[in-house]
Amino acid sequence: MENIDWGILALYYLLGRGGSLEEPGVPYSINWEEQETRDLISFVRLASEELRRREAERRADAWGPMYGPAPTKVRITRSLRVYIGTQELRIRPMAKAVLLLFLKHPEGIQLKCIADYREELAGFYRKVSRSQDKDAIERSITRILDCFSNDLNVSITRVNSALGTLMGNAVSYRIEGAAGEAKHILLDRSLVVWE
Predict the structure, then answer these.
(1) What is the CA radius of gyration of the chain?
(2) Residue 114 neighbours by CB distance under 10 Å
(3) Does residue 31 contact residue 75 with C-beta atoms inside 8 Å?
(4) Closest by alpha carbon to 89, among 169, 144, 159, 145?
(5) Are 42 and 161 in contact (CB under 8 A)?
(6) pLDDT over 60 (residue 193)
(7) Which residues fall within 8 angstroms of residue 115, CB to CB, at 6 or more apart?
(8) Alpha helix segments (H runs only) across the chain
(9) With contact defined as beta carbons under 8 Å apart, do 112 and 89 qualify?
(10) 84 strand-pairing partners
């Protein structure tokens, strides 16, 4: 559920109450300030419950016609082969390393900060790369982390394209995010199994 700014929520409540703030709480045998506090607490409680209910409905309905069937498990073997359900996702080594990095970080990664994840990305790439040339591996890693290179975007596109080919509708598995914001994979990480 999204972070709730309780101050803004309370302000909307108070603005919605309008002139009733001046009315004393006579029917309740308490002063109007105490009644306003009780009303506000009640309003916040109801608003919280409503937000939780809507979030639960959104998650339950998210896998309807718009998103296709409910997501299946992703299994990553010790040799870093990626299976979605029973099908193996076959992509180039650098694209696979990028996918694994994003699977490890559900909070998302800003592309401009990808260099902060160098060791993790390099570890994945060294394990999946077919090359034995350590210098070539390091050059590939340096190139993908270069903010002036388009290699990272190409790898993300390859991941998303391979997922679309494998599954058709792969919305929850794709690496996505608005320009300038963190890119992430929406898939619930309880569906990701690392062996």
Answers:
(1) 24
(2) 18
(3) no
(4) 159
(5) no
(6) yes
(7) 145, 147
(8) 6-17, 32-61, 93-104, 118-128, 134-145, 151-167
(9) no
(10) 74, 87
pTM: 0.65
17: alpha, beta or left, given left = phi > 0 and alpha = psi -120 to 50?
alpha
Looking at mean pLDDT, say which of 32-36, 130-134, 148-152, 153-157 comes out highest.
153-157
Put residue 18 in one of left, alpha, beta given phi > 0 → left and psi -120 to 50 → alpha.
left
Q: What is the pLDDT of residues 141-169, one digit of tens each?
A: 999 999 888 999 999 999 999 998 888 77
Cα distances (Å, whole numbers) of residue 22 to 16, 34, 154: 14, 12, 62
CB 143 within 8 A of CB 149: yes
The two three-digit tokens of residue 174, written as one number:
């794709």
Place of tokens 């506000």: 40
Helices (H), 62-92: none
Residue 132's contacts (CB-CB under 8 Å, 6 or more residues apart) are: none
**Residues 6+ positions from 82 with CB-CB distance below 8 Å:** 74, 75, 76, 88, 89, 96, 99, 100
Q: What are phi and psi of 141, to 5 degrees?
A: -65, -45
